[in-house]
Amino acid sequence: MALSLFQNPNFLKSQLQSQPQIATATTTARCGYLLVRCGGPRSQRGPLVKGRILSIEAIQAIQTLKRLHRTNPPNLSSQLSNTLTRLLKSDLLATLRELLRQRHCALALRVFSTLRSEYGAELSLYAEMVQALTACDMHEDVDSLILDLEDENEIKCDDHKGLASLIKAVVTARRKESTLRIYDLMKKSGYGTVAELDEYVFKVLVSGFKSFGEEALAEELQQHYKMLLAKSQFNTLRI
Fold first, then answer.
1. Cβ atoms of 229 and 197 closer than 8 Å
2. Do the Cβ atoms of 123 and 166 come closer than 8 Å?
3. Shortest CA distance to 111 belongs to which of 124, 129, 123?
4. Which residues are CB-contacts of 157 (< 8 A; sequence separation ≥ 6)?
């Protein structure tokens, strides 16, 4: 009878079809995995930013800066300077933003100082620095940063977006004196006379002065803006 069963083609077909199912079930039952979570200093870093690419030079500079900051050698300043001055502008910017992302604000200040002295710095980058320093509770360094900007005796008034971002960042940090310094610097740089007016910049300033309780100064600024706007419109009609 056993011989007749194996000679039956339908019996063999059913046996062959059942074998893969048994193997699959066995494989599924045997296959499994354990989820392992690794912790440590590296797990404390912020999440990776999509599209963030660092050059080898920038990575090496960041590692060197951290090591120097940790060991604090006697010639720290000179070693930091030697590390940073070798970098291109793009690598300096990448190094700066990566340090800010990792909340190494003290090191970021060193990089920013080198970047500003070697290539200059846009107002939007000043705003980024102010925001990061505020998040790190380094409010006095915000004032120092604006003092450094004041030492340049001029501000790029035609960069309306960067100027508004900087003012908003300083106001958010609740640095009243620094906000006043920026306004004085704007006037020295010919804002509203030489440089084109921007309504949004004035609104940010007025809102900032009001938040500091400087209602009289906010009113003075509004009147000043109306006067400059009327003068600008009159000159346009004459042309």
1. yes
2. yes
3. 129
4. 163, 186, 189, 190, 191, 194, 195
* Cross-strand partners of 191: 195
Rounded distance between C-alpha atoms, residue 98 and residue 221, angstroms: 38
Cα Rg, the chain, nearest whole Å: 32
Amino acid at 61: A
Phi first, then psi: what are they for 73, rounded to 5°? -70, 165
Give dist(CA 91, CA 84) in Å, integer.
Answer: 9
Cβ(83)–Cβ(61) below 8 Å: yes
**pLDDT tens digits, residue range 195-227?**
677 889 999 999 999 999 999 999 988 888 888
Q: What DSSP character marks residue 45?
A: S
